[in-house]
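Dear colleague,

Following up on yesterday's call, I've attached the two folding results inline so they're easy to grep. Please treat them as preliminary; we haven't cross-checked anything against experimental data yet. The first protein's sequence and structure tokens come first.
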Amino acid sequence: MAHIARARYASLIGTLADPEAMQDPVRAGDAKAKFAGLSAEEREVILGDVREIAAVRQNAIANAEEIGAALANVMPTRPEFQGLRDVYVKSLAPFLATKELRRAEAATTLRFAIAAGVGLFVVVLILVNTFPNAPDGSYEDKKRLVLYGAGALGFGGYAYFRHRLYKIVNVARDRMVKAITNALSLRYERDPKSSAVFDQLRDWSVFPSHTRTRFQDRFAGDWRGAHFDFNEIHLEERRGSGRSRRWVTVFRGYCVDITFERTLFGQTVLVPKNVGSGFLSGFPRQMKKRNLAPVGVAASAFHDRFNCYANDQVEAHYILDPAFLERLIAMETAIHGKGLRAVFEGNSVKVAIECEDMFEIKGSERLDNPQIMARTLHELGSIFDLVDFVLKRELDAPKATKSFGRLKSA
């Protein structure tokens, strides 16, 4: 009964145990009305959970100094991030501690469901094989149907309990990311419907052919005089036919647009060597259409990895000097990425990199571990590092050029 009530009224328990939610007259009134309509046994279970969550919250508050010190030891040293220590200690740590209770419970239930599903399948397999087959072999189809049914039941149970686990994890993750972006005055969307920077890069044919596009985690805002717009993207292509028809990931990573005040004279595109060698056959046509010619990259180490095209050779050589390329590759390495693409035009630099999902939390990780907050800040810091470098590169440009290259004529 307790387990059923806890699962059924998880949202109600979360509201009653959240001091901020209970300060909202509407949410508090709805929660109290729902609680009053429950049976005495259900109310007892819910109150027990609320008290447990309150105790965990108070323990996190009592250990604020210890938690803050643990975070300070692992978080990035950027001055802009220092205020986030107090945000974590005062707001996030108590919340994450309570969510960790539910995550641990959901993880245990998932492990039990996996064991039960495997056990059920093995038992059914043994029972099915103990029945003798009919002389005409007519039982074979029925045996196969029973095994498929047992497998589907086990997988369905796994999917359901895994969904419950990641629902808790994603609530914690979203709360953390929103707290960070609010403190830094950035705009954030969990699941944006479109991406302007992706559309602009796609017009340059720098992405593989794809038939389905998904966007996630959009960060946008102003940073030290520049505007940036960051999106995670997932591109898939439908391949095969008949029963072998499937979705195949062709690009997973992120793209970011950095806009500054000054304007480039020409257009410069940097892509990996394999772009245009088969799976991106539209790229060479796009370069020809835009009148961009190949440019030799100065450093031999980068020449083996990239192709460069531009319609202003002087400006392209200035942009793609070894120092700038090293910084781009260092950022790519920091997030374990590959396949860097960059387009320099107008008053912006657009960059796309293949990498694993960022800003994610695994179901096996403790939500109250400060390392998660630190990792999120390191990932966000890699974006800021690129913005900072682009701005420094522009500000350090010779006064005669006024930008990466020459100042565009009015």
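Below is the second protein, in the same order (sequence, then structure):
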Amino acid sequence: MVKRSLGRVGPILLIAAMAMLVGCSSFNREWNAAPATPASPSDITGRWQGAWRSRADGHTGSLKCVVTEPSADHYRAHFLATYWKIFHFEYTTDLSAKPAVNGVIPLEGSENLGFFAGGVYHYTGHASAADFLCDYKSKYDFGTFTLTRPRFAAYDIDSKSSRSDSQ
């Protein structure tokens, strides 16, 4: 009996695993193509990493993001979130921007992540060249994203300045 039931579940698990791998490879291509450092002190495009935390149930996980600017006052955030340390979920959302105040850009947007992910999520937050903070809210969950530039980005900035200083 156990063998027979596992035989039916196996193909479903394989398809689900393949779907997750395809999604991750799409994000990884974008992550690798994104600049490692901001182009200017006011630039919020590029790579981000940090964590998400649900204030509804306390769950937390790692979070990576690539931000692009397809048009003025609009940004696209491509997220890769980890849940229970083993499940990866990726999605893209458009964020509207308001004019920056002291280098901080207010952002807001919403995205329907589908029935299994909790439906429509609404985002409000802000980003500077160094920090990207956002609150999220859906029918079933609410919490925060806290992202900063990857550590190697600071190293890249230092190594570029030291190279230019020595030339």
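For the second protein, one point worth flagging: Strands lie at 46-54, 60-71, 74-83, 87-97, 105-112, 120-127, 131-137, 142-148.

Best wishes,
A.L.
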